[in-house]
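Can't attach files on this board, so I'm pasting raw text. These are the components:
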Amino acid sequence: MNRPATVSFPNLDGLRFLAFLAVFVSHSMNLLGYASQHAGFNFARDYLLLNGDLGVNFFFVLSGFLIVFLLIKEREVTGGIQLGSFFLRRLLRIWPVYFLVLALGLFVFPWLGAGLPAGFPLGVATDRLNPWLYVAFAGNFDYLVNGITNLLIGILWSIAVEEQFYLFCPLLVAVLSPRRLLPAFVGLVALALTFRWLYSPMGGMVFKYHSVSCVLYLATGGTLAGLANQPAFVAKVASLPRMAIVLGYLLGLGLLPLRRFPWTNPAVIQLLPVVIALFFAFVIAEQNFAKHSLYKIGRIPWLATLGRRTYGM
Amino acid sequence: MMAFFVTLFLFHKLGWNVAKMDKFIYLAVVVTSLVGAIAFAHLSFRYFESFFLQLKTRFAVLPHG
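---
Top answer:
Structure tokens for the assembled complex are below.
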């Protein structure tokens, strides 16, 4: 059997930490209840910093890319997918921290928060959520059924979405021929867009938290992984001129303030996430394969270390 | 999120008004929570997750880093 060299993307760990930091800042702005009188601060918060929630969407694209890329490589090298090993690896990576957080959220924090005053910024009561949905990795549906009632446990919704994707993603790679894999992931993107258009044309909870809706980002990562296994695509990204890369970043980052406008046109509401998903795919492709990048994030070793350490966050 | 809660809880116990915080308390909460979250992540990685990650490596079909 032809064993490949280690599959490694050193720049992605640093990006992972930046995405964590973006989510952290966004949560601090959104949930701590701090109200500033300073117009400049409020503008930066509303149009820039609150976009940090997109870090979760970046994680989705990144997970889709990494999982599908490794599965395709596995099939190339071994001739198949060892589904048992795949699920066991996912279990060992995610379940320990997931259930630790769930246990703390269900048993320890409600006990700690029992005597807190009414105005305390974060609620820890568990009486309005369905814990079994979290145990079954379906916490995003708790949001849809019961609303956002406990953020300490509620943050697990994104892990639930990823776990649901991991259930069928390896089956797809195992069953479909390499030629059909790329159209299949593009089809998943189309499915997510159709679902969003039909069930949440104006955005909202279903748009943000439903598994089928979130497949938009995971399948965009999967599509990128399919493309990244084609030498012609990799060569094209590798030869991207620096000017084109800078332009890509300016366009992508320029979108952020636009996203926070109170849009009333459903076409704009539906289109913005597509462009954002493509921008995240562009960042991952550029960081991994471009030869003329403005800056490779992997050059900052402590950022990569923090990215690996905060994986479970 | 848990780091925020622990920080707010401790500051509340110290007598700080976290229900209606000024910018200094807000900054202190954010910085303490960030340091706490990274410290917790580091300790969790080193003393809890590493055991499971070693097991995970045993089931790796391809070597990856």
